[in-house]
Amino acid sequence: MSAAAILDLGKIPSKVNPELQSERDCSSLTPYISEITAIVDGGRNNTEKRRQIERILFKDPLFRDCAIDSVYKPRDEMYARGVERSVRLFALKEEYNWTDEEFGIAVYVINHQYSLGLHTVMFIPALERLSTEQQKAKWLHLARNYQIIGTYAQTELGHGTNLQGLETIATYDATTEEFILNTPTVTSIKWWPGALGKSVNYAIILATLIIDGKKHGMHPFLTPLRSTEDHKPLPGVKVGDIGPKLTFNTVDNGYLILNNVRIPRENMLMKNAQVSREGHFTSRGPSKANYSAMILVRVTIVNWCSVILSNSSTITVRYSAVRRQSTLDSSSEKESKILDYQTQQYKVFPSLATAYALFFVSKTLKNRYLKTYAEIMKGNFKNLPEIHCQSAGMKALSAEMTVELLEISRQACGGHGYLAASALGDAVASAKALVTVEGENTVLYLQVARYLMKRFAAAVSGERLSGSTEYLCMDPIKYSCPINSPGDCMNVSLLCQVYRFRAYRMISKAARMLQRDIEGGKKQHKAMNDNLVQLVRAARAHLLYCMMVDYKESMNQLQISVPVSKALNNLLVFFTVFNIVKNAGDFLETESIGLPQMEWLKETEVKMLAEIRPDAVSLVDAFDIHDNTHGSVLGCYDGNVYERMLKSTQNEPLNQCDVHYSFHQHLKPFLQRNNTSKL
Ligand SMILES: Cc1cc2nc3c(=O)[nH]c(=O)nc-3n(C[C@H](O)[C@H](O)[C@H](O)COP(=O)(O)OP(=O)(O)OC[C@H]3O[C@@H](n4cnc5c(N)ncnc54)[C@H](O)[C@@H]3O)c2cc1C
């Protein structure tokens, strides 16, 4: 960097940093980047569509710095910007006639930096899934045209996980044909729903239905909260923001107190259960059907994790290709790129590989969900438990992996990764929310484990299983480790057999432990609680196996050129091997592999680092993430890291004047407290 550039903090070179350019020049994958981009976007037309959406959004200053400007703004300003962005986004949707899918692309492009996401992500899908046809005709167009703005209010101060513990009540009054909603205790106050605090005027409220003193389970009630005229809370409604969070502070997650709020009978969303005028209750389908909107959100979170990791890998790989530190070869005059250190590759490539893995896995999961959803809409609930298990489990596993890998990505950028302007800290904190939202991870793993225990018992009693648990019918005696040479470690089909056996053994072990305790006289609940840790381990093993199979099969379906196939296969092999080595203890303990195989796998793992290294920059370029989307000074396409870091200091409010007012108010009087004369 020249001295002139140092003086001119706002100047970014017009050329790509030669460090990054040389990576692109030397990667044999570079000519094929657009082929991978098309895979990630779901076709070349979609790539063009996304870029068009980027052009529309980023010509507007409101969206240009959205990924990072919140760092420099106070909370209420952030919220106001978030609302402004929401409104502009909704207007653009109407102006350009964006489909829901295109709107979803726009949301990813602006990195979710808007306030009213819950309206699109939960409120509308819940209306679609929980309303009768008549109710849809009345409410859906109002929601879709933004004449009402809503959220989904389930969680309370006292309960989130245990839905049966929710205390909000909706009591039917047959004389007026109304429900009366109340949050009768402190713990029943709704707490957390996004956009509830200041934004929405409607909410779908989950409450226990009571008719003539009798409880009829949890049901959704469409409830007006604020006047559509002046936005003031309606009588009986007290609502506000719950305060700042680790991230997502553009969103006004809120609290809600209801005191005898009356809504018409027609406002109970009655697809799955009905209350007649006279107060007669009828149910159709399983009670779990009321939570089908949550399944969709969990499926979406798996994809979101892939996008988060694509963003962070773009940042860490590009930065690692630009940053030089020390030298590998003492005879060299030039310092080495940090990306050339094997340990750096071991920090950065797992994220890259997992970003691709979760992309393929989420695609398969979404297709599976859409198929099951179509069945459910026709009243066929047969596959609901399977899709519930898959979506809950994959959400938990993806979020867990993402948080772990993101933190390592942040560390991989050294001190600069700790700067807010790197965007990595915010990404880590945001990903942390994904572990908790839409079902806390441990709780979801345990739901998967309970499902597995039931399926295992069915297999033991001779039932033929289908779906993800089909393998529980296997005869473990017939297993022998299929890895017979170091070369076999590159064969993902063989590795999947290893994953399958490990899952089988861990599930059967959990079942055995439970049975042992119950036969030993423990009550079912006590036996369960005494084995929860093993149950979670078993669930994880099952989910990791499912993930590997879905990833491999999704890749098999691709029709791609040889260089792309080679590069993506390198990532597939690395991801598969990496997760065995990471869980080495389990694989050895279950005798899915032996010690020699583990040695071979470890060698393969580091060998794959070297295979991925030359194409690493091309593989992140292929995500084609706009600089304004990731918002990081470390990860821009041009690689001008240091100049961008300098420029970002201009955004810092402290730098808006040479002498800060606190100097005059505090420091100066203190420094000069004993001065009798000027120095
Ligand atoms: C950013 C954010 C946005 C949110 N948005 C919304 C929203 O829009 N609408 C909404 O309704 N809610 C929302 N929530 C709330 C969220 O859905 C809940 O926080 C989540 O479901 C977890 O429930 P909980 O907070 O009650 O956790 P808890 O269940 O209290 O979990 C605390 C601990 O207890 C453990 N635990 C709990 N039960 C069990 C069990 N049975 N077995 C073993 N361990 C257990 C958990 O594993 C965890 O370690 C949001 C939360 C966040 C963080």
Describe this structure in words.
With 679 residues, the protein is an alpha+beta fold. It folds into three domains: 34-114, Acyl-CoA dehydrogenase/oxidase, N-terminal domain (Butyryl-Coa Dehydrogenase, subunit A, domain 1); 149-284, Butyryl-CoA Dehydrogenase, subunit A, domain 2, CATH 2.40.110.10; 293-465 and 488-620, Up-down Bundle (Butyryl-CoA Dehydrogenase, subunit A, domain 3), CATH 1.20.140. It has helices at 3-7, 18-26, 33-41, 44-58, 61-64, 75-95, 100-109, 117-130, 133-144, 292-322, 342-377, 384-412, 424-436, 441-460, 492-519, 524-529, 532-556, 562-582, 584-589, 595-612, 616-621, 627-630, 641-648, 661-671, and strands at residues 150-153, 169-173, 178-182, 190-191, 202-211, 214-224, 237-241, 254-258, 261-264, 273-275, 281-283. The strands form three sheets. Strands 1, 2, 3, 5, 6 and 9 form a six-stranded mixed sheet that branches. A three-stranded antiparallel sheet has the order 4-8-7, with no helix packed on it. It has a two-stranded antiparallel ribbon with strand order 10-11. A hairpin with a 2-residue loop joins strand 5 (202-211) and strand 6 (214-224). Helix 3 packs across helix 4 (44-58) and helix 15 (492-519) packs antiparallel against helix 17. It binds flavin-adenine dinucleotide. Flavin-adenine dinucleotide is lined by residues 118, 152-155, 159-161, 192-194, 248, 253, 433, 436-437, 439-440, 442-443, 446. Residues 118, 152-155, 159-161, 192-194, 248, 253, 433, 436-437, 439-440, 442-443, 446 line the site of flavin-adenine dinucleotide.
